[in-house]
Write a structure and sequence with these properties.
The structure is a single chain. Strands 1, 2, 3, 4, 5, 14, 15 and 16 form an eight-stranded mixed beta sheet that branches. Strands 6-7-8-9-10-11-12-13 form an eight-stranded parallel beta sheet. It has about 400 residues and is an alpha/beta fold. The longest helix is centred in the middle third of the chain and has 18 residues. The radius of gyration is 21 Å and the shape is globular. The chain has two domains: about 100 residues, Urease, subunit C, domain 1, CATH 2.30.40.10; about 290 residues, TIM Barrel (Alpha-Beta Barrel). It binds 3-[(4S)-2,5-dioxoimidazolidin-4-yl]propanoic acid and fe (iii) ion. 3-[(4S)-2,5-dioxoimidazolidin-4-yl]propanoic acid (DI6) binds next to helix 4. The site of fe (iii) ion has 5 residues, from loops.
């Protein structure tokens, strides 16, 4: 036997998600890790020795439920200001698209984000990341896209990296240059797309600031051809792609994502069958974002039956952003995915763990099995369906990332 384990949790119910179906629950369970990696996930009775011989730190969890730490694979949580005023306008009947076309929407957040110093942006964004962690997240993806000039885009990505360091969790960053056309390029779309393609992608790559590239493929965003130009360059630079696809307009975004072997296509309310088939063949994850569906009071549901029939892996994320999804809990996104989209609690939990990790290209987390990172959420719950069932409040008791306990100060 090698060196002792660092930590051993006893008397807990493990939701291991070890296989592709079912929770794979282990009652009277134990979870041990060493050097940030799980070394034992099983029944207490199957431990190879006495707990305090095995591990330096041993604790009983008194029957608590433990799951893999949640993975929020789609957020825009770095931004300045808020858009509560637009929320009020929408309640009075103005549409999201009308507000965007009138110069509000994404562009109003762009102005605030450009004006904020890097420290201000960090200070405003950090509490949103803390809120996600306080309800179970241990890995976050964060996109740029509210700069729309190179300096501000890189500033956002640096802030995202700094949040990961500050909170001691994994943050994956995504360059979202094609989010909206900045006003200074109003009549020069092509020039903007070329600049993102030729200058921004290589710069973000060179500085190690982007783990992936995303685009907003919508009537109010960018066309499939514009996205193609940028994605082609991303692939040349070995940067994986993800796509905001088929949310408000069915432009074939799911198929476009699959064409570029995208890690994920996100939203998909308007995706047709051909898109779903192409995603299945390409192994592209479908990321469902019920927060924006709810906040925009949309009615068109994502094609759940087609996704299931084709075996497309389904993930669930918050889409935390100031416009369409001011949602600061991934567990609440799980609840909304069940209530609004008809996911089972098991599909939704898998969607916020193992499949969400896959949507980020991460295979080292999302299950509680030996060899995976010790990213663990300990819940004030007894059954896994409770995670989807309780609405609001925090259920989280403790969180660990890479074996280190996280501060849950929200
Ligand atoms: N993600 C986005 O980037 C846009 N919609 C979405 O789901 C809009 C973000 C915004 O309005 O600020
Ligand atoms: Fe988004």
């Amino acid at each position: 036997m090698n060196a002792r384990w660092d930590h051993l949790l006893l008397d807990c119910t493990l939701v291991t998600l070890a296989d592709d179906h079912g929770y794979d629950l282990i009652g009277h369970g134990a979870l041990g890790w060493r050097d940030g990696e799980i070394v034992f996930a099983g029944a207490i009775d199957d431990l190879p020795d006495k707990p305090d011989v095995l591990a330096r730190q041993v604790e009983s969890l008194h029957g608590a439920l433990i799951t893999p730490g949640l993975v929020d694979c789609h957020t825009h949580l770095v931004f300045a200001g808020d858009r509560a005023d637009e929320f009020e306008r929408r309640l009075q009947g103005e549409s999201y698209e009308a507000i965007a076309r009138a110069g509000g929407g994404i562009l109003s957040t762009v102005l605030a984000t450009r004006a904020a110093s890097e420290d201000e942006l960090f200070a405003q964004s950090l509490p949103r990341a803390r809120a996600l962690i306080a309800d179970g997240a241990t890995t976050l993806e964060i996109k740029s896209g509210y700069g729309l000039d190179l300096d501000t885009e890189l500033k956002m990505l640096r802030v995202a990296r700094r949040i990961g360091k500050e909170l001691d969790i994994t943050v994956r960053t995504t360059l979202l240059g094609l989010h909206a056309l900045p006003p200074e390029y109003r009549d020069r779309r092509d020039e903007y797309v070329t600049m993102v393609r030729e200058e921004w992608l290589p710069a973000a790559k060179r500085e190690g600031l982007a783990d992936a590239v995303d685009a907003f493929c919508e009537g109010i965003g960018f066309t499939p051809d514009e996205v193609r130009r940028v994605f082609g360059r991303a692939r040349e630079l070995n940067l994986p792609v993800k796509l905001h696809a088929d949310q408000l307009s069915g432009l074939g975004g799911g198929g476009l994502a699959a064409e570029h072997a995208a890690l994920s296509a996100d939203h998909l309310e308007c995706a047709g069958n051909e898109c779903i088939a192409a995603m299945a063949d390409a192994g592209t994850v479908a990321v469902l974002l019920p927060g924006s569906f709810y906040a925009l009071r949309e009615t068109r549901l994502p094609p759940m039956e087609a996704l299931r029939a084709r075996g497309v892996p389904i993930a669930v994320a918050t889409d935390l952003n100031p416009g369409t999804s001011p949602l600061r809990s991934l567990r609440l996104a799980i609840n909304l995915a069940c209530t609004l989209f008809g996911l089972t609690p098991e599909e939704a939990l898998r969607g916020a763990t193992v499949n969400a990790a896959r949507a980020l290209g991460l295979r080292d987390r999302g299950r509680l099995i030996p060899g995976q990172r010790a990213d663990v959420a300990v819940w004030n719950a007894h059954t896994p369906s409770e995670l989807a069932y309780w609405i609001g409040g925090s259920l989280l008791q403790r969180g660990f990332a890479g074996g280190r306990e996280l501060s849950l100060r929200a």
